[in-house]
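For the sake of transparency, this paper describes our internal protein records without simplification. The remainder of this section carries one protein's record, kept here as part of the documentation:
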Amino acid sequence: MASRYTLGHTPASAERLRYVAAIADEQTRFLLENLTIDEPPALVVDLGCGPGYTTRLLAETLRPDRTVGLDVAESFLEVARQSPHEGLEYRRHDLLEGELPVSDADVVFTRFLLSHLPRPTSHLGTWSRALALGGRLILVEVERVNSPDAVFTDYLAMLDGLLRSQGGVFSVGPVLAEAERPEDMTTELDRVATFDVPASLAGRSFHLNLQNVRNDPYVLDEVGPERVDRIDRGLAELAEGTRTTTITWQLRQLVLRRTG
């Protein structure tokens, strides 16, 4: 089965991921900097690397000899290669098509990927097999996003419905927490980070998302053009700062270590 990324591989999608990085990088950096690693890793792999924001963050914080970013979209990889970094490389790979094209990795990392994959927890075993003994699988996924604003809640309900129609789920963190671990993996860390996000920043990210999905058959049939237009206008107001509210993100941070 070939991958289909719900939010698209357009220039708007790449721009959206810049806002996603602004939302999540501080929490991700804190997680990576507080890992107990005795020496710099030889190989770090970033799954679903997109235009390279997380890949560069991994290279900067963990300082491995090599960092490999994998993504199915050549358009994203072209953007990523425009910001070279020592020891960093990008390869095209569809994560739904068998084993990873790397082995003996010290770290395999992914952020906001499992939401988009069918049977999300079924991939953990495949990814763990790419690790060296003692290597870590690091997962950062949405636990929950809360806001009192009806525009945000309507948008998030629409996005979750769209993902579920394709076999995924937006708030995949609770699913991940309950998932059976691969038998050769132990849980080193399992926690939820909670933090507030500027409404304008979330509004920009979500507004770009909406442009990519508004003509999806699920959105047209189950949400409808009138409701989508209403959400669109509200997100534009939030992005511009003419509408104010609060929004809180919770991220599941899970670190599994290969022990056998």
Observations:
- The beta strands are 43-47, 66-71, 88-92, 105-111, 131-146, 185-196, 248-258.
- The chain has a mean pLDDT of 94.
